[in-house]
TrEMBL record:
Name assigned to this protein: DUF503 domain-containing protein
Pfam families: DUF503
Alphabetized InterPro entries for the sequence: DUF503, TT1725-like_sf
Organism, as annotated: Scopulibacillus cellulosilyticus
Superkingdom of source: Bacteria
Length: 93
């Protein structure tokens, strides 16, 4: 069994309140959970307007499958115009 986790720090430049920030984050997390076989959550900086850390996790017998699902999840962030990914860390268990 392969467990993959990716953590990424992000900036949301146009967020002027926690409400703005959470709207962007909720959109990304909901799409990732619905479209891909991953768990997704905001794991850090919940009370800072323009900064966040998101985590995506997937489990499978194939590392290729897990890595593909995590990369697809990260692509949601990259495609979203309001958020920029700054630091990304993969972990394998």
């Amino acid at each position: 069994m392969i467990i993959g986790v990716v953590r990424c720090e992000c900036f949301i430049y146009n967020a002027h309140s926690l409400k703005d920030k959470r709207a962007v984050i909720k959109s990304i997390l909901t799409k990732a959970k619905q479209r891909f076989n991953v768990s997704a959550s905001e794991i850090n900086y919940q009370d800072i307007w323009q900064r966040t850390e998101l985590a995506f996790a997937a489990v499978s017998n194939s590392k290729v499958f897990v890595e593909r699902e995590l990369q697809r999840s990260l692509s949601l962030i990259d495609q979203h115009g309001e958020i920029e990914r700054t630091d990304t860390v993969f972990e394998w268990l």
